[in-house]
Design a protein that fits this description.
Elements: H1 2-42, H2 56-67, H3 71-84, H4 91-107, E1 116-119, H5 126-132, H6 137-143, E2 156-159, E3 165-169, E4 174-179, E5 182-188, E6 191-193, E7 202-213, E8 216-218, E9 229-234, E10 240-243, E11 257-260, H7 262-271, E12 277-280
Parallel strand pairs: 3-12, 10-11
Antiparallel strand pairs: 1-2, 3-4, 4-5, 6-11, 7-8, 7-9, 7-12, 9-10
Helix pairs in contact: 2-3, 3-4
């Protein structure tokens, strides 16, 4: 009986071996290639494969140009990255650097195609010069290093037409300034408190810019103007841009508005003028 069991086991070995060989042949010939093709079609395993960051070479090239003092060329390389490679890991850094370079080019004495010099005529004031040049009083003061609004006949002032537009995204938490279709600079939204009627997509314009000294509005001629808190009101009631503050209204509620840091508000007050478009995208 034992001999019979041994004989049967010995005969089964070739059968098992042929089964294993057949299974291996089927796996390598049919199953494995099919699974590989399926993964390629469905994208399974794609996360494990590192895709090349095509934007990084543009970022590295832009930084090299900026280091060499080629601000315009470096900025343009960053704008190319921002437009065509939003998936790049360098995208956020590209926006941050491009925004700082754009502001430097705007405020500094570096010549730009639309940056001109206005010779002050007798009887002119900063407010009239700003309106005729489509710019702001704050821009003229910053670009010309002025700490007072006093100007003199024959004085030369740098002026620049500020024709920007603003997009506010609550989902991204950003307020972005565009120069036409081109990115100019992005600002982080610190807090939002808007009435219920300000919802969905809203397109409006800047209607007023106000400087506040504690609880009273002041004009640019006030001695404390540069230290005042700033507001930018739009044509949509309740939608305004203001610096972030922990202060509360008399009723204990947070003030209405889209709030940014104080330093960012100073920049926005400088580069945004009455009449430009403000779009709430979500």
């Amino acid at each position: 009986m034992a001999h019979l069991k041994f004989l049967l086991a010995f005969c089964a070995l070739p059968i098992c071996a042929s089964g294993v060989a057949g299974g291996y042949y089927y796996w390598t010939k049919y199953a494995k290639p099919e699974i590989s093709v399926t993964r390629q079609i469905t994208g399974e395993g794609a996360a494990k494969r590192q895709k090349p960051d095509l934007g990084k070479r543009h970022f590295d090239a832009a930084m090299a140009l900026l280091t060499e003092g080629e601000l315009v060329s470096g900025r343009d390389r960053l704008l190319y990255l921002i437009r065509y490679y939003p998936e790049s890991k360098t995208f956020s850094d590209a926006k941050r650097v491009a925004g700082e370079v754009n502001l430097d080019l705007l405020i500094s004495p570096i010549p730009r195609p639309e940056k001109t010099r206005h010779v002050v005529k007798r009887g002119e004031a900063l407010i009239t010069i700003a309106r005729r040049s489509n710019t702001t009083i704050d821009y003229i003061m910053r670009a010309n290093g002025k700490t007072t609004v006093l100007i003199y006949p024959n004085e030369e002032l740098i002026v620049y037409p500020l024709n920007y537009r603003v997009e506010i995204s609550f989902e991204a938490g950003t307020l972005t300034v565009f120069d036409g279709k081109n990115f100019f600079k992005e600002y982080k939204i610190v807090n939002v408190n808007l009435p219920p009627e300000v919802a969905g997509t809203v397109v409006t314009t800047i209607s007023e810019k106000v400087a506040w000294d504690v609880d009273r509005p002041v004009s640019f001629t006030d001695a404390n103007y540069l230290n005042c808190s700033k507001w930018i009101r739009t044509g949509k009631i309740g939608l305004c841009i203001r610096e972030y503050s922990l202060e509360r209204t008399s009723a204990g509620a947070a003030p209405l508005g889209v709030m940014v840091e104080k330093s960012d508000m100073e920049e926005l007050f400088t580069i945004l003028r009455v009449g430009i478009e403000v779009k709430l995208v979500n």
